DNA sequence: TCGAAGCATAGACGTTCGTCGATGTTCTGT
DNA sequence: ACAGAACATCGACGAACGTCTATGCTTCGA
């Protein structure tokens, strides 16, 4: 069987970390699993990025462009774009470009997948 | 009604962040809520700390001393103690000293509380 | 065609983080 | 009382992170 390396994202995280379906409390997580999971958590472990996720979800239509998010956060546009890229690369957000605007949306079930990873006995 | 400032820990995290019981997708999280939640996630967003939590949970009796954890991680004893302190301060672990040994245990429901915070609609 | 708007990227800078060696502290056994 | 074991704390150092300014790339409207 040929194994293919796939980038781990927040949406596909549940029950796939380190090729072990056991929760943390059954047997020790693998080294690779711990690394992947830490990347997912690290992308979320920032106040501004948490607010970004929350604001996008709460925004009308479940989507928001960069210009909607810059002012309420009190950050510059490049910084907001940076945070959005981190969240998108981790699999929490998707980007859709319409005209000159870039609209960001939550990936359905992404947060739930990560939450499932934290589940213990 | 008198409000008392309490340190937010992983065990008490569920439904208490920023005084809002709404999930992230209802209305934007508060500034303080985002800061507190990021601290909880940051404590967990490290490969070695994830492995520590997992190894302690999988250890016999659900507890482990520092000497049990140093060698399998390939870290020095001060580094392991440092990580255990971070996890303990965040509310994920408890410390019990018996003799010269310090035994660490998972706080029941701590991971679940944080997982509940990530729940969205 | 050209200027402006919206966004991404690049480079720089100060801060935080993970790790280490050295040392302090507490407890046990002799 | 003392030597050793187990652990915590301290100080230092390189790497990673968050933020900024400056700049480049598209797209739209005049």
Q: What strand line-up does the widest sheet of chain A have? A: 1-3-2
Quaternary class: homodimer
Q: Cα distance, first to last residue of chain A?
A: 33 Å
Tell me what portion of residues of chain A adopts beta-strand conformation. 5-15%
Q: Please give the count of helices of chain A.
A: 5
Q: How would you sum up the global shape of chain A? A: elongated
Range of helix content of chain A: 40-55%
Question: What structural class should be given to the helix and strand makeup of chain A?
Answer: alpha+beta
Taking Cα atoms only, what radius of gyration of chain A do you get, to the nearest Å? 16 Å
Strand/helix succession of chain A: HHEHHEEH
Q: What's the count of strands of chain A? A: 3
Interface with most residues:
A-B, 38 and 38 residues
The parts of chain A where pLDDT drops under 50 for at least 5 residues are 1-6, 14-25
How would a crystallographer describe the biggest sheet of chain A?
A: 3 strands, antiparallel
Mean pLDDT of chain A: 85
């Amino acid at each position: 069987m040929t194994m293919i390396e796939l980038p781990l994202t927040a949406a596909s995280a549940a029950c796939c970390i380190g090729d072990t379906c056991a929760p943390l409390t059954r047997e020790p997580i693998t080294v690779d699993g711990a690394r992947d999971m830490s990347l997912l958590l690290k992308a979320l472990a920032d106040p501004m990025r948490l607010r970004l996720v929350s604001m996008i979800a709460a925004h009308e239509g479940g989507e928001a462009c960069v210009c909607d998010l810059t002012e309420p956060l009190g950050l510059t546009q490049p910084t907001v774009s940076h945070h959005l890229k981190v969240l998108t690369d981790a699999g929490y957000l998707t980007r859709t470009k319409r005209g000159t605007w870039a609209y960001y949306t939550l990936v359905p079930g992404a947060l739930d997948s990560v939450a499932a990873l934290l589940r213990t006995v």
